[in-house]
Design a protein that fits this description.
By secondary structure, the protein is α/β, with parallel strands linked by helices. The chain has 3 helices and 8 strands; from the N terminus they run βαββββαβββα. The strands form 2 sheets. The protein has a 4-stranded mixed sheet, with helices on one face. The protein is globular, with a radius of gyration of 16 Å. About 20% of the residues are buried.
């Protein structure tokens, strides 16, 4: 027996410097039309788009490393390519750093994404995938071996 999930309910990101990261996340999550539920000296938690995002003060502050065990990056799903482009135009004004400008990639048909970092270096992404993406019955899964190998390179 198996079950079919209905997306991600929430994610918590523990940041190296909460006080430095908080203004960035206030701006970013507000821009993504997420509503604040909790705003304390240790936790900032918002909901919207059928998910929740919590930013938590680290008890053992260490720099983010995408290749250490744990989260590599968090990816938000945009409703359009234009939304990806719009965020690309404002993320640096929030205090973030763009890792790569919006670009198409082979993760799914029409995959279009922006990769960026918060002020502490935590990696974030926003993407748009038209239609059903890889859930389209016409897409053969798993992806071709050469595509999988290319996408696996750090």
């Amino acid at each position: 027996m198996s079950i079919s999930i209905n997306g991600l309910a929430h994610i918590y990101i523990t940041v190296q410097d909460f006080d430095q990261a908080l203004p960035f996340y206030r701006d970013l999550l507000g821009f993504l039309e997420m509503e604040c539920l909790v705003d304390t000296s240790d936790l900032f938690y918002c909901v919207g788009g059928r998910t929740g995002v919590g930013i938590r003060r680290a008890l053992r502050p260490e720099p983010f490393d995408a290749y250490r065990a744990g989260m590599h990056h968090l990816c938000f799903r945009a409703r359009s390519r234009a939304d990806v482009d719009t965020l690309a135009g404002v993320v640096e004004g929030f205090g973030g750093r763009i890792v790569h400008a919006p670009v198409e990639d082979d993760w799914a048909p029409g995959y279009y994404s922006l990769l960026f970092e918060d002020p502490c270096g935590t990696r974030l992404e926003i993407n748009h995938v038209p239609g059903k993406g890889n859930l389209d019955p016409e897409v053969e899964l798993p992806l071709a071996a050469d595509t999988q190998a290319r996408l696996s390179v750090p």
